[in-house]
Amino acid sequence: MNGAILEDGTIVRFPPHIGMQMQSLLRAGSQLSVAGYGTQNAYGRAIESTSLSIDGQPAIALFGPPRP
Known about the structure:
It contains 1 helix and 5 strands. By secondary structure, it is mostly beta strands. It has one domain (3-61). Strand 4 (44-54) and strand 5 form a beta hairpin.
């Protein structure tokens, strides 16, 4: 799993390893909060998430600064 589709049709993408970790938590009806970069056009809206939270849990940073 590398993403989710919200009720309004927005596509939220995240790395597959995060999808594997969140698979048991992310179900239909879950409250998903995301931050990231996105676009909207005639085909819809999509967001590449940089952090996410499920059902009010603390946000998980998906991408951080590069390692030194």
